[in-house]
Structure formats: C-alpha cells, structure tokens
Amino acid sequence: MARQEKGILLHYGNISHTINKIMPFSGIDGEKFLRIVVAPDSYKGSASALVVAQAMERGIRRVFPTAEVCKMPIADGGEGTVEALVTATGGQFQQTQVTGPLGQPVAASWGILGDGQTAIIEMAAASGLPLLTPEQRDPRLTTTFGTGELIRAALDAGSRKIILGIGGSATNDGGVGMAQALGIRFTGDDGAELPHGGAALARLRRIHLEGLDPRLRETEITVACDVDNPLCGPRGASAVFGPQKGATPEMVAELDAALAHFAAVATAATGRQAAEQPGAGAAGGLGAAMLFFTPAQLRPGVEIVLDAVHFAEVVKKASFVITGEGRTDFQTAFGKAPVGVAKVAKQFKVPVFCLSGALGDGTDTLLSHGIDALLGICDQPMTLEQAMREGETLIEAAAARLCRIIRAVRSLR
Q1: Which residues have CB under 8 Å from 238's CB, separation 6+?
Q2: What is the pLDDT of residues 44-79, one digit of tens each?
Q3: If both were cysteines, with which of 54, 184, 226, 279 could 179 make a disulfide (CB 3.0 to 4.6 Å apart)?
Q4: What is the pLDDT of the chain when averaged over all its residues?
Q5: Confidence of residue 7 (pLDDT cuts 50, 70, 90)
Q6: What pLDDT does 12 receive?
Q7: Which residues, 6+ apart, have CB-to-CB distance to 202 below 8 Å?
Q8: Does residue 1 register a pLDDT over 50?
Q9: With contact defined as beta carbons under 8 Å apart, do 98 and 64 qualify?
Q10: Is the dihedral of CA 367, 371, 377, 379 positive or negative?
C-alpha cells in the first residue's frame, strides 16, 4: 500500500513484521549489535553511488551512532560501474587517451579491481552519448573504436579477466569500431578499410580475422548487458535505441539494413549465430560484436557487480540493507540495482529498504521482488532541479527518517 503525506511517498508491505526480523537491539547500548549494509546505485545526474552511500551513512549515524555501517556502492553495468567496483574492492583507477565517438581524443577512465587482475571498463567512457552535444549526435558516423582501445589497454596492463559495461552508447556501428581497434579489418569491394560509423557497414564485403589480438583467446570477458534486444528488426539496436542517439526514421531504416548486412557477413566469417541472441542489439550492436569476435558472455550487469564485490558474503550477517537509485518505478524490477541487491539479501532473510530520488508508476510491484519498503527522499514539494541540486542533503535526511521509524517500531515490542 502507499501513503502520501507532506510530500513524502512511502510504499510498504508489512513494515512492522519486516522490522521485527531485524537483529534485536535495545537503546543506545544495543546499537553496537546493528550491522547495516548500505548498497545504493547512483542518483544519475545528482550523485555517484559512493556519494549516495556516504550520505546514507551520515543519516544512519544521526540515529544509530555506534552501529556498524558497511558501505558498498553498487551499479548495474552502466554509469558508475567503474567507480563502484574499484572503490568496493580497493582497486586502482586508470586513465587512457582513446578515440571518442566522432574521432576526437578522449581521456577515458577505467579500473583494475582489488585482485590486481580484473579490469573494469565502461564503454560510455570512450564511446558514450554524454561525450557529444545534441547537435553532434549522428549514429551513421559514431564509432566504438575507443572502446576497443580500452580493452587493448587492459590487455597491455596484464588483465586476462575483463568486465565490460555497455550502457549509454552514442554508437550504432555493430561494434565494428571496437573490433577494428583489436586488429580485425573490415573491407569493401575495393579492398579498402571501411570508415567509422554504422552507415558504412552497408558496403562491407569481407572481414579479415587474422589480425585479431591473440591475447583475447586467453581472456575471460564478461559483458554487463541489461537489455535483451536482438541486433536487427523492430526491437533491434537501430529501431529502439537509434532515435535517442540522433537517428531520424530514415536513418533508422538505413542503419538497420546496414546492421543486417553486417550480421550476414560476420556469420559467414565466424560461423557464429549472434544476431538474434538476447543483448546483441545492446550499445548499437556492440553486444553482437562481442559475441561474434571475442569469447565474451553477456550477463545482467547487477549480477556481475554483486559477484565481483562478494556481496553475498557481506550481506548474510547484516541486520538490514538500505539501497536506492535516482528514480524507482516498474522498470526497476527488470534487473536494476535495488532489485539485484534485494534478491541476494532475501537468500539470507535480510530486510531491504529502498530510498529513491523519485517513486514512479508500478513501485508496488517491487514489494514482491524482495524490497520490504520504499521511501522517496523529498520531504516537501520541489522541482526536479532543486531535488537534484540538494540530493546529498535529502538522502541523508531520508536515511535518518527511515532509521527513526525502525527504532520506533522496535521499541513497541
């Protein structure tokens, strides 16, 4: 059920029953028995996952000053995945200059996890939509070449395990730019290398695999992919994601035909049937290229992140978990971070609370996906701009309100 009171929207199941499951404590002395795991995603455009986790901890400390708080910033494979994983594992940030989506130089950040061996890359850092102004967006021309350069940088650093997040792309080139950076040649009838961009794939005649970096054969690549779109057709990369990258209806038709042609040539060259696989259409077809040309496996991003930080080991001894994201609605159930966190926590019967920047349609459905209660952080009517500007303050205050509710309900026992 849901209540609206003084601008605060609270969705909850049987919250009293939920709080009764929290590890028993009494008064100030009992707080030391509380072990609270804080595992939010970023509030996009407002605060990174790490900043959100820090704000939540400050709110918790207002009410439970001596509780043990374990901060585990989480991501689902998109923006913030590198920061979340490097921070959570005690790894190191790296920076490499690469080719941007329109050929411009870009200083792209990536990371090596705390094990010293696993590289974490966000393709958006090299080939992402935020790297272009709205006027520059043209998926006929944009390339994933810089993403391939980041993979090559990870190989040069000695990594033989790579996690690649493929959200937020500016591209529709079928991942051909990425493959070019790793040594594959794509030529037309004249034998010349094709230029960058999705439109050029219509002229593809031959794929030369012999130059592919041999180190990839001994590398484990896991692709964080949270969509199940095929490469082509009405649900394909061009039709579904092309318009947000600047494609007109005419461009969508052109690009879809070019990708279909690319898929036919790639299937003949590799013997692999990748175009219809779920996720092949992710990131303008980068998912398909990873399946055609590398030993990659596609998995839901939040599962990869939670496995990498050994979340199950941390959460199984928790009193409760606080997660969150910028906007929570029915789409959160489709593999986003809060539901991924809840799925693991419920294996150990640990209560999960979600603090969100905004609560949209369908949030009640999440109560059947392991989340026990959802709270919006805004404590009064305000504009989106104000909420984003004051995000840290609002998150801290909301975490404190949640903890006061928990403390009050427990005191009734």
Answers
A1: 139, 172, 198, 232, 247, 251, 252, 253, 255, 256, 259, 284
A2: 878 888 899 999 999 999 999 999 999 998 887 777
A3: 184
A4: 89
A5: very low
A6: 45
A7: 254, 257, 258, 261
A8: no
A9: no
A10: positive
Q: Report CA Rg, the chain.
A: 23
Question: Which comes out higher in pLDDT, residue 54 or 29?
Answer: 54
| Rounded to 5°, angle at Cα 40 from 59 and 163 | 150
**In three state form, how does the secondary structure of 126-162 look?**
HHEHHHCCHHHCCCCCCCCHHHHHHHHHHHHCCCCEE
Q: Indicate if the pLDDT at residue 9 is higher than 50.
A: no
Token pair for 102 = 């329109």
Q: Which of 125, 129, 121 is nearest to 155 (CA)?
A: 121
pTM above 0.90, yes or no: no
Instruction: Name beta bridge partners: 161.
Output: 118, 220
- The domains of the chain are located at 2-73+321-378, 81-302
Strand partners, 97: 107
Contact 84, 49 (CB under 8 A): yes
For residues 379-391, average pLDDT: 85
Report pLDDT digits (tens) over 193-206: 999 999 999 999 99
- How many C-alpha atoms does 228 have within 13 Å on its Cβ side? 3
Per DSSP (E only), the strands in 211-351 are: 220-224, 297-299, 320-328
pLDDT tens across 137-193, in order? 999 999 999 999 999 999 999 999 999 999 889 999 999 999 999 999 999 999 999
Q: Which two tokens stand for residue 166?
A: 């493929």
Alpha carbon distance 233, 235 (integer Å): 5
What's the token pair of residue 168?
A: 């937020």
Measured CA to CA, the distance from residue 54 to residue 316 in angstroms comes to: 21
Length of the chain equals 413
Q: Which two tokens stand for residue 109?
A: 């950040």
Q: How far apart are the C-alpha atoms of 272 and 288, rounded to whole Å? A: 10
**CATH match for 2-73+321-378 among 3.40.50, 1.10.3470, 2.60.40, 3.40.1550:** 3.40.50
Show the tokens assigned to 150: 């980041």
What is the distance, to the nearest Å, from the Cα of residue 72 to the centroid of all Cα atoms in its chain? Answer: 15
Does the domain spanning 81-302 belong to CATH 3.90.1510.10? yes
Torsion of CA 148, 154, 156, 159, to 10 degrees: -140
pLDDT at residue 413, rounded to an integer: 62
